[in-house]
Amino acid sequence: MTSKSKELIAFCVASTTPFDSDGNLSLEDVPGIISFHKTQNKVPGLLICGSTGEQHVLSINERVKLYKASRDAAGPGYPLYAGVSSFKTKDAIVLAQAANEADMTGIMLGFPPYRIPSQHEAEQYVVDVCASIPPTLPVFLYNNPRRTGFDLQPETFVNIYAKVPNVLGLKQAGNLDCIPIIKDSLSKRTDIPEEKAKRGIRFYAGNDVDFVDYFVKHGYNGLTSIAGNVFPSQMEQVVKHLEQQESDKAKEIMDSTVLPLFTYMKESGVLQSIKFLLADKGVATGENVPPHLDLSKEVQQTLLQKLSSISS
User: Fold this and answer.
1) Nearest-CA neighbor of 234 among 219, 212, 264?
2) How far apart are CA 50 and CA 246, in angstroms?
3) What are the φ and ψ backbone dihedral angles of 82, each rounded to 5 degrees?
4) What is the pLDDT of residues 281-301, one digit of tens each?
5) Half-sphere exposure of residue 137, counting CA atoms within 13 Å on the CB side?
6) 223 in helix, strand or coil?
7) What is the C-alpha separation between 79 and 6, in angstroms, rounded?
8) pTM listed for this prediction
9) Which of 11, 17, 58, 13 is nearest to 275 (CA)?
10) Residues with active-site annotation
11) In whole angstroms, what is the distance from residue 12 CA to residue 169 CA?
């Protein structure tokens, strides 16, 4: 099985993962979630097993199964990106190879949480993982210091980009000023392959709330969207308007449609809110895994009221 195109698209939705009442992966619910996003929400691509997908709640074996189940449900050619991250390099290699075997379109490679590697160790981690998969499988790195305790520095990313053929992007959840620094550093390098330089870099954000500012002021050009679980067409339009330099139209969609509900979702528990709202549409989203708790009836009712007022 081979995907029609292995590229890093500008917009995809970070999908949730279904769990059973024991906190284990509910494989039987995976096809329904994938089908809903692809067919009903018409999402152009999905990020599987990222932070929104609660990857570290899953075992290595469960993640391997999730990659395959997601591709089986989506069918060939549909853009699926696999979140890969682990405490140990050897486990990250297992996951990356499984993502390739499952014909994922690309990999989001996160850094080991909690262990806080040095910059040199983090660079070697990326080199080792990427060396275990074909150089044609696109990879974007995921830097999220708040969740991992590690902060990828701009010069480290530039070194990685120059030497690792797979690495074509960065999801930067750390210092916003890193993007222009990286762009400036790369413009001065003479060791970037010509074809790679022409292809350009995808700089992803995972923050829907501030994405308009990220795009306009900080040089981001892609979004792995959480809000897109509930507002798929609206968030896709936000990205398209920004690509067409229509930031006023993008901001209008955010202010009038997305933010009134999404801000409340973040206050109430964004993952629980997404799962509840999708379940209300008939999607089997599985159970919340403690310490995450089910939403109160009051919060559920408020979510439905806010969504209804936006839709009307």
Assistant:
1) 212
2) 29
3) -100, 125
4) 999 999 999 999 999 999 999
5) 24
6) strand
7) 8
8) 0.96
9) 17
10) 142, 171
11) 14
Give the type of residue at 231: F
Phi, psi angles (nearest 5°) of residue 177:
-70, -10
Q: What are phi and psi of 110, to 5 degrees?
A: -90, 165
Q: Cβ(237)–Cβ(223) under 8 Å?
A: no
d(CA 127, CA 65): 25
Cα dist from 132 to 8, 60, 170, 193, whole Å: 20, 17, 19, 21
Q: Say if residues 84 and 99 touch (Cβ distance below 8 Å).
A: yes
Continuous segment of H or E residues that includes residue 46:
strand 46-48
- Other CB atoms within a 10 A radius of the CB of residue 107 amount to 27
3-class SS of residue 288: coil
pLDDT per residue as tens digits for the range 212-225: 999 999 999 999 99
Q: How far apart are the first and last CA of the chain?
A: 43
Largest CA distance in the chain: 59
Lookup: tokens for 256: 């009038």
- Provide the pLDDT confidence category of residue 2 given band limits of 50, 70 and 90: very low
Sequence letter at residue 109: L
| Model pLDDT for residues 171-183, shown as the tens digit of each residue | 999 999 999 999 9
* Cβ-based neighbours of 147, under 8 Å, separated by 6 or more: 51, 113, 173
